[in-house]
Amino acid sequence: MNVAFDVMAVLAASTLFASAAIAQNARDVRGPSPLVAIENQAPARLIVDPPLAEQLAHGLVFIQYATENLRVVPVFGKGALDVSPRIGHLHITVDDAPWHFVDASGETVIVVGLPPGPHKVLFELADPTHRVIDSKTVSFEIPVPASTAPRK
Asked: Are 81 and 94 in contact (CB under 8 A)?
């Protein structure tokens, strides 16, 4: 008899999880339709994760980011300010360099060739005219490779 109750409990739990997964719709995943203007858009927000630790050990910096209430696309200029839902791109500065690069892909940012030691990457969420809306700085350390570490 206990087996029957266990089976029923498993079925009930799987039905609950399945219905929660089904309740998610395309708008939940992709955001609002780009075909309809949004009145009173919420402020744009930038979310930046720390670099993937496994890759740092190899001297590679992989940083994932996401935006809320802004789509990252390669569209620039004053006319693009009127696009709804809001669009923009990122300015990325490594170690306080006097220059930055622009990312309009929405994909993981990859930085290679940094020497061992502490580093930081500044992410700036910008509108199509390059006005900064939000920013985040990620600090990390690239370890000395085990093969070149001084022996004690």
From this structure: no
In a domain, 37, yes or no: no
Q: Which of 60, 70, 89, 65 is nearest to 138 (CA)?
A: 65
- Is there a contact between 128 and 75 (Cβ–Cβ < 8 Å)? yes
**Distant-in-sequence contacts of 53-60, Cβ < 8 A, 24+ apart:** 56/140, 56/141, 56/142, 56/143, 57/143, 59/112, 59/113, 59/114, 59/116, 59/142, 59/145, 60/110, 60/111, 60/112
* CATH code of residue 81: 2.60.40.10
* Assigned domain for 16 exists: no
Q: Global pTM? A: 0.73
Residue 9 lies in a domain: no
> Could you tell me if residue 120 is inside a domain?
yes
Quick: pLDDT tens for 67-126.
Answer: 999 999 999 999 888 888 899 999 999 999 999 999 999 999 999 999 999 999 999 999
Q: Tell me the C-alpha to C-alpha distance, in Å, between residue 92 and each of 11, 50, 96, 105, 135.
A: 49, 15, 10, 12, 10
